[in-house]
């Protein structure tokens, strides 16, 4: 009997020990899971440095470029984690794409946009903000670009961690300005270029919001408020998809084919017009088949906007890759050229390996850290359905395309979030308008003003939070960059 009791106690002790080991394993798994993303990111940053070393070989400035490549890779990861949420958030928030599908589409089209059409804006970032004669020595210029890269990456990393969709363009431009002022004073900055960039920051969210509201008004007036919604959708959905396809074709011809053949603006417009008409004709039978058997109600329209929304999200990712890759590789390309030739006053030639670091870094950052902000942008500012999300994506894409075509480093964050606000505020205005019309009917009960205020469709807290983040980003990045530049100078024994 005593032996049985002893064995029983032994088994209970063994069970407790095994339970502890099991709990320890589960805890270790739980703790290590959050470290997987940073671990993969760290490996990518190291690989970026190795690629830079292999590309340059043994030169006197190899170490400098390797360090700059790691900073550029770090910045690219943060762009993917923060900015790409603005592209895929609407599609995910409208349930037109799963998170996994959004990440795959964004990774492909972000990389394509960066590699095919990203060079123009890179030149603006790398040489347009600091005046050609603002900094006399190439070493000082290199340290300034280093400080700009690191400070902007750190700031975006912090913003992503706290869940704020800040502008990576603001961050890197602020970083370049801060380092330039610390290096050579206020006269080193091309304030004319800064004025144009700052104006584009104000204009771009307004354009994004107005165009998104305009598209939503068009869809409501021509489709949703029509007696036969399905028949109206069969007519107008192919037209909207044709507009999107034509804009994409014209942009790709101007940006992506110029290295192969000389494409004039007129030729690009004709190409876009032709492909837009072709897409419109192709989509007519597609939409007709999709609409067969659908009930005449708003919910049925979501099916017809699913494909256009996915395509517009892909288009926006392409445009974002073309525009925002500059934030990661613009300063890096300038450092490479200045370290190899000593020339930092002329156009920057961009090595392929530099563009690859930017393209793949954005994709890795999206995959590893993007879902958090995708959910915030897609569902927490205002409620989106496929029609509203299509308006957001299409208007944001068109605005980014025009900006990138002009070579202006506008903020895709401002454009996309501005489009979301535009859709939300238009819905509020439209709901208020329809409510006033209904109040004219004496038989309908009147809604108190307090209840009408509670029916706001845009979360005001997000408006203030995002606006504050936008205002703070430029000075914060500039101050951090200036401090990093001064620290680098002290460490290297500079003046």
From TrEMBL:
**Origin: domain of life:** Bacteria
The answer to keyword Cell cycle applying to this record is no
TM region(s), chain numbering:
35-56, 62-80, 92-117, 140-160, 172-192, 198-219, 231-254, 260-282, 303-322, 350-369, 389-406, 412-429, 463-488
User: Could you mention a single GO BP entry for this protein?
Assistant: phosphate ion transmembrane transport
Say yes or no: keyword GTP-binding present: no
Task: Tell me which UniProt keywords the record has, alphabetically.
Answer: Membrane, Phosphate transport, Transmembrane, Transmembrane helix, Transport
Q: GO molecular-function annotation terms?
A: phosphate transmembrane transporter activity
Q: How does it sit in the membrane?
A: Multi-pass membrane protein
Give its localization. Membrane
**Recorded GO CC terms:** membrane
* InterPro entries in the record: Phos_transporter (IPR001204)
Record-linked PANTHER family: PHOSPHATE TRANSPORTER
Give the family, as the similarity comment puts it: Belongs to the inorganic phosphate transporter (PiT) (TC 2.A.20) family.
State the protein's name: Phosphate transporter
Report the source organism: Paracoccus lutimaris
Write the lineage as a comma-separated list.
Bacteria, Pseudomonadati, Pseudomonadota, Alphaproteobacteria, Rhodobacterales
